[in-house]
Every structure is written in structure tokens, then in C-alpha cells.
Amino acid sequence: MANDINGINGGRSQSANDKQVQNLRREAASEGNSRAQTSNATSSGQDKVSLTDMASRLKSLEQKLAQQPDVDQARVDKVRNAMARGEYRVNPERVADKMMNFESDF
After folding, report:
1. Which residues neighbour 79 within 8 Å (Cβ) at sequence distance 6 or greater?
2. What is the pTM of this model?
3. Is the pLDDT higher at 15 or at 100?
4. Which is nearest to 3 in space by CA: 90, 92, 79, 95?
5. Which of 6, 32, 46, 83 has the greatest number of beta carbons closer than 10 A?
């Protein structure tokens, strides 16, 4: 018996998000630590704007994440096919561990 899973979750899976965020974090770390960027201010009392290295990296990560696909179609197809063949198994301990890790991040 096959279950149609279309439309159940329009967002991307948590594990796909986790992997993408980890990859983006590695990319940001490899770019190195840049100095804070400061606008030129004169001694006439103009305001000064400063972006920290972390803010610049977060902005870069946000842009890269926005370019990622919402759904890992290959993963969806793999699970759908396993379900259709009756081979999809849920490991309750793994699910519980993932839930606890997710909650502990907050």
C-alpha cells in the first residue's frame, strides 16, 4: 500500500537544512576573518557605521541559504519509493534523539 505524500510538507526537511547550514558555516569559516568594515568619517562630526565580521558573514550565509532549493527532490523520491515497496522503516530512537537535539539548540 502506497501513501501519497504530496503536499504534506511544502518546506525543506530538517536534515537537509542542517546539512546546508553546516556547509555554509564551513564556507564562511574558510573565507577567513576579515576586519570590521567602517565607513569613512571626517573630523567634522559625521556619523560612522561599522559592520562586524560576524554580521557580514551572517549576511553572506543568509543569501546563500536563500538560493538553496526548498525540497531535496532526490530524498523525497528515495523515501517515496521505499514506502511504495514497503521498505521504509522508522527508527524511533533516532527520531527521539533528533527531537531532543533540536530542542536543546534553543
Report:
1. 5, 88
2. 0.35
3. 100
4. 79
5. 83
